[in-house]
Design a protein that fits this description.
Alpha-Beta Plaits; elongated; At4g02000-like; Zn_knuckle_CX2CX4HX4C; Zinc knuckle CX2CX4HX4C domain-containing protein
């Protein structure tokens, strides 16, 4: 996503220390001299072409704020997650075992598209509720266009 000169030795040292591996670790360049700010790992599939891997899909934990207390249930969490992208997991507890401030979801995000910042809910009386989305541990991204590949 962000083109910079790759220091393969430094990358090797960092990942080897993070993974605590005893065996040898091999890195294969998908595209020469390009490093991603967001590191995507996918399981290796024998005889699968590198173009078939979806490196643009990455799971992120996110929090949905401003949901009225009466709507904080499993169905709303699932519906909100599906509106954003594919739901991977739902964290059912917030603080003391019940949701209070937000719903926390793990959602598969296409990082090549702009990030969503809000979700719109319609209450039983027809009122529209705008719910803010906050992403956890998000790499550098642009607050103007919503893309992860740059900051301004």
């Amino acid at each position: 996503m962000l083109e910079e000169k790759v220091n393969r030795d430094a990358m090797y040292r960092v990942f080897k220390s993070l993974w605590f591996t005893k065996e040898e670790v091999n890195f294969i360049a998908v595209k020469e001299d390009v490093i991603l700010c967001l590191f995507a790992m996918l399981p290796y599939v024998k005889d699968q072409d590198t173009d078939a891997y979806a490196f643009n899909l990455t799971p992120f934990w996110l929090r949905i704020f401003n949901i009225p207390l009466e709507y904080m249930d499993k169905q709303v969490a699932t519906d909100v997650g599906k509106a954003i992208e594919e739901v991977v997991a739902i964290d059912w507890r917030d603080r003391d075992g019940g949701w209070t401030e937000y719903i926390r979801l793990k959602v598969m995000i296409d990082v090549s598209k702009p990030l969503r910042r809000v979700v719109h809910l319609v209450s039983s009386d027809g009122a529209e509720i705008v719910c803010a989305i906050k992403y956890e541990r998000l790499p550098t991204f642009c607050y103007i266009c919503g893309l992860i590949s740059h900051s301004t």
